[in-house]
Amino acid sequence: MAEQNLPPTIFHMLEKNLGKNIRVILDPSYGFEGTLKAVTREPAGIWLSNADAIILRATIAQPIPQVTSREERSEIFVHLNSVQRIEVLHVASRR
Questions:
Q1: Is the separation of the CB atoms in 65 and 59 below 8 Å?
Q2: How far apart are CA 88 and CA 95, in angstroms?
Q3: Which of 12, 18, 39, 65 could link 8 by a cystine bridge, Cβ 3.0 to 4.6 Å?
Q4: Rounded Cα gap, residues 40 and 34, in angstroms
Q5: Are the C-beta atoms of residues 19 and 50 closer than 8 Å to each other?
Q6: Confidence tier at 94 by pLDDT (50, 70, 90)
Q7: What's the pTM value of the predicted model, to 2 decimals?
Q8: CA torsion sign, 76 to 81 to 43 to 17?
Q9: Residue 13's Cα: distance from chain center in Å?
Q10: pLDDT tens across 22-62, in order?
């Protein structure tokens, strides 16, 4: 049989970002930021270290949600069933 080129799964995409800072949005106003340390398949989830719980707010004048507060957490497990969006955070370069 010929080998098929299957599209990458969410697990492959997450594993490519191990060690990077990510933002995990659980609902429109709540999420976590931290360093992606591990991806598990059973149960389907991710482990974050140096994590912060974040509160997001959007207004009519600023429709893109902005982080308004943080609460320090250490390490957390987030089940992928509860995740709405995952963002990879990039460090802004200084010029």
A1: no
A2: 22
A3: 12
A4: 16
A5: no
A6: low
A7: 0.81
A8: negative
A9: 12
A10: 999 999 899 999 999 999 998 999 999 999 999 999 999 98
